[in-house]
Structure formats: structure tokens, C-alpha cells
User: What shape does this take?
Amino acid sequence: MRWLLAVFCLCVTSVSQAAFTETIVRKPQASPSQVVMQPLIDKVLVIKSERRLQLISRGEPLKTYRISLGKQPRGAKQREGDSKTPEGLYWLDWRKQSDRFNLAMHISYPNTQDATRATHEGVSAGSMIMIHGTPISDDYPEWYFHTLDWTEGCIAMRNSDMREVWEMVKDGTLIEIRP
Assistant: This one.
């Protein structure tokens, strides 16, 4: 009976935090006569254990999104094909419109430490780690992907959230991925 209660509690907890987008308003909205400038995003912070991606402006979190990770979300990426999302400091260095995942921003994985470790272990570090949207599919609607860790090591977001990040984050922005 206790295990049934535990399973029920875990299900309720996971569903209750499954979908969110949090906006933190720090300054009053500009009047229509004022020119509204897009805030400068200095850093993207990913907290894997919380499945959150935060946009940081001047050291303060501006917006937070729910994300999905690689199929093996615990631990840092060690080699190509391990389905883990990397951990460390990287750059968002280029972007593309993807036929498969809509909008996608490339993360500069592997960094020097990742490449050195993989070389010493005699394995490929992997590549093509991206922040991207979800597939548009009649068989698997977007909500199906939103609460799963389903990627091969990338960071996935709802397409509407990815469009916001695409507009606000410029190439060359630092991304920190924490456990």
C-alpha cells in the first residue's frame, strides 16, 4: 500500500511541475511613446536537475523555461552516443532553421576539456549539441515531448518558447549547463 502511495505522489509531483514558463518583470513597461528595446541577454543558464533554462540579463534572471534533456539526463556527456546532455561552459555560436526540430541554436560542445578527456579515453566526444524546438508531427503532438527527456543529448523546448529564445539570444552568448 505504501508503494502505491509513493507512486501516486511521484506522478502528481512530476505532472505539477511539467509545464511552466515564468516571466520575471523587474522594470515597469515602457509607454507607447517610448522606444522599447530588447533586453541584452548576457548568459543562458541551464539547470539540468530542475529542467530549467534561464535567460540572464545583467546577472538577473529575466525569463525561465521548461526544457527536456537527453534520454540519459544524469551526468555530463562523456562520449558520442551516450544520450547525455553536456555540463560546463560553452557558447551559442550559430543557429539554423531545422526541418526536423524547427529552430535550433548550436552549443559549442565539445570544449577543450571535453575533447581532451575523450581523446585520453580513446572515444569521440560527439558534436552537434543544440537547443531546439520539438518536431511538428501528427503522430506525436508537441505536448507529448514536453515532459519527457527524449533527445540524443540536446536541450529541447516548446516551439513557442524556442521562438522567444531565438529572438532574445544572440550568437556568441555564453551558456552554462549545470547538473
Strands lie at 21-23, 43-47, 52-57, 60-66, 88-98, 102-107, 129-132, 155-156, 173-178. Confidence is low (pLDDT under 50) at residues 7-18. The two ends are 34 Å apart (CA to CA).
